[in-house]
Design brief:
SMI1/KNR4-like; 4-stranded antiparallel sheet; 26% strand; globular; 3-stranded antiparallel sheet; 5 helices; 134 residues; 35% helix; alpha+beta
Length: 134
Amino acid sequence: MWSDLIGGLYADAEFAPPASDTEIDQIEGQLGQPVPNELRDLLRHANGVQAEWGSGLVWTVQEIIDQNIEFRRDAEFAELYMSFDQLMFFGDNGGGGETSSIAAESAVAHVRVCRSRPDPEGRSTADEHTQLPS
């Protein structure tokens, strides 16, 4: 399923070997929040997915831990956007936009946050969208 879905969008996608449940549980232990079921399933299929120019479409377990800790400790990001403690970032688009997920009751919201700062006129470069499960 994941190979077909991601491979259909990114013909050059390279799938790493699967992550074990023990490895995935490290995310929960380090970040103090559950890994969404869809992300857990994807990591069981591939512990990371790379595309052209090294885009980390899906980060490895260790990258998920490291990047989330970095985002949560960055006071500038918290001031610019919001606290990232309730989000779990799990990939990027190779151009500075990260992808995250947050579970809220029966909905899962996916949020993209750009690493770049607002432009001089004060507009934010972040974009957000919400996807409700079917």
